[in-house]
Write a structure and sequence with these properties.
Number of domains: 2
Number of strands: 7
Number of helices: 11
CATH architecture of the largest domain: 2-Layer Sandwich
CATH superfamily of the largest domain: SCP2 sterol-binding domain
Length: 256
């Protein structure tokens, strides 16, 4: 059993379970609908597979996660229990606090594979063309071996590809990684960055015009930045549009 704080109060007992490294991030990925081990791991790419297995086992023992055999009997599936789902509003409130007050991002935070994983969950497939659409993303400022990614939408099912799927690309997106993340987080105006040529789109005119309506930004993007620093200055230059005083979303989706 994990060593506790020796205090009976409910807060201490909750912290024993939830405040271990990576635990809440794993819960948030499960809350976003990831059920297979590989899906969860893509949402926490810097977490070792062995540690992820350990945290999932801990969450199962704590009653936050239930497992079952995957269809076809290959592997396991993981789902939040009622207790796990009840963490949704807590995770969203923490994400909102982070948008307001957490430290500014540094270079080590800018993980391009995590960014694209997050994007694949935020594509409005109803706004995309029927059939198959392939989007290639190339980020300058990222490590040389981690700059190119692909998102493949097939009739509403979006796949993130780390290797070239060898399909015809319908839309190419090129950008500096930090700049794109700042736009994704809401500190820059996404459409304005496209218009200024800092986010470059290459494809048919129709697809280029429609791309900003496909990509829903980070769930916390509409909320204001309150901590002094570079990100607050960027948001201030962006002008009106960042909301303040709003309640966060009601589902555990805000931590991407």
């Amino acid at each position: 059993m994990t060593q506790g704080y020796g205090q009976y109060c409910p807060f201490s007992l909750a912290v024993e379970v939830l405040c271990r490294r990576w635990t809440l991030l794993v819960v948030s990925r499960l809350g976003y609908g990831c059920t297979r081990f590989s899906e969860i791991h893509r949402g926490v790419p810097r977490m070792s597979p062995s540690l992820l297995s350990k945290r999932l086992a801990e969450l199962e023992r704590a009653g936050l996660v239930a497992t079952s055999a995957a269809p076809g009997g290959r592997g396991r599936e993981y789902r939040l229990t009622e207790a796990g789902r009840d963490l949704g509003p807590i995770i969203d409130s923490l994400a909102l606090w982070g948008q307001h007050w957490a430290r500014d991002m540094v270079a080590d935070d800018l993980d391009p594979s995590f960014l694209v994983w997050s994007m694949h969950l935020r594509l409005d497939t109803d706004a995309m063309p029927d059939g198959q659409t392939v989007v290639e993303l190339v980020f300058s400022g990222a490590p040389a071996d981690c700059r190119r990614f692909w998102l493949v939408n097939r009739d509403g099912e979006v796949e993130m590809c780390l290797k070239d799927p060898e399909l015809d690309v319908d839309l190419l997106v090129r950008s500096d990684l930090r700049l794109f993340v700042e736009a994704w987080r809401g500190f820059r105006d996404f459409r304005r960055e496209i218009g200024a040529g800092r986010i470059v789109l290459v494809g048919s005119r129709e697809l280029c015009e429609r791309f900003p309506s496909w990509l829903q930004l980070h769930p916390m993007a509409p909320y204001e930045r309150r901590r002094r620093g570079r990100e607050r200055q960027l948001a201030a230059r962006r002008g009106p549009g960042l909301a303040s005083g709003h309640a966060p979303p009601e589902t555990a989706t805000a931590s991407i």
